[in-house]
Specification:
By secondary structure, the protein is of the alpha/beta class. The protein has helices at 25-38, 43-50, 55-62, 68-85, 94-100, 114-124, 146-155, 169-177, 201-213, and strands at residues 12-15, 22-23, 89-90, 106-109, 131-133, 162-166, 181-185, 196-198.
Length: 228
């Protein structure tokens, strides 16, 4: 067995969950469509806003005349039901990647809630790490750096030794603002700011594992690198 490196020489990988490890795009779209129809709103417009804002901000924009707490309760009800009955799949390469990483060197950082993430991971047979930072764990969500900084602190990691794997612009900005290396997966084109872009998670598996097994990072260059 390979002896673990001392903490100062370790690298860490911090993953978003939905859209990065779990394919939940159709589930999210269906949940928001059902929610929008309950309130007599145009589903595509609601979903467009929801993609870039947290739920309470979404409600303020598209349903300012509604009680936001009632809106949130209805959304949570639909999301919990989807975790129980929706169809989910892990992205190709996710299981292989997570199983290969050393315990204590990776974390999940999600804008969702822990019980839903655990439910989805159980249904797709993905391992759950020791550190999981969810929406309830922080007052400021992505694109604030707070979620990723909290994950690094709980792992005992320095931000400069962390690699963030994200699919969404808000998550990419969160990782960058935390002072971390950020790679973008599962998008047709690179998200602005990401140092590297991979069309699929599968394309990134070898590079992520190479990152995790190497020594301390050299100084990070300024600005995004040329996408892969």
């Amino acid at each position: 067995m390979t002896e673990a490196r001392p903490n100062a020489a370790m690298r860490y990988v911090l993953f978003d969950a939905d859209g990065t490890l779990i394919d939940a795009l159709n589930n999210q779209r269906l949940v928001w469509r059902t929610w929008a129809e309950r309130y007599g709103l145009e589903p595509d417009e609601v979903y467009r806003v929801a993609l870039r804002t947290r739920p309470m901000e979404t409600f303020a924009q598209i349903a300012p005349d509604q009680d936001p707490q009632e809106c949130l309760a209805a959304l949570h009800e639909l999301e919990d039901e989807d975790v129980r009955t929706g169809v989910y799949a892990a992205f190709d390469g996710a299981s292989e990647l997570l199983q290969a990483l050393q315990p204590g060197t990776w974390a999940l950082v999600t804008s969702n809630y822990e019980h839903r993430v655990r439910g989805r991971f159980a249904r797709t047979e993905l391992p759950v790490p020791e550190v999981l930072v969810d929406a309830a764990a922080v007052k400021e969500g992505k694109p604030s750096p707070v979620p990723y900084l909290q994950a690094a602190e709980r792992l005992g990691a320095q931000p400069e030794d962390c690699l963030v794997i994200e699919d969404a612009p808000s998550g990419v900005q969160s990782g960058l603002r935390a002072g971390m290396t950020v790679w973008n997966v599962n998008t047709l084109t690179a998200v602005d700011g990401a140092q590297r872009h991979f069309g699929t998670l599968r394309d990134a598996v070898g590079d992520i594992l190479a990152f995790a097994s190497a020594g301390p990072l050299p100084p990070r260059p300024q600005g995004p690198a040329t996408p892969k």
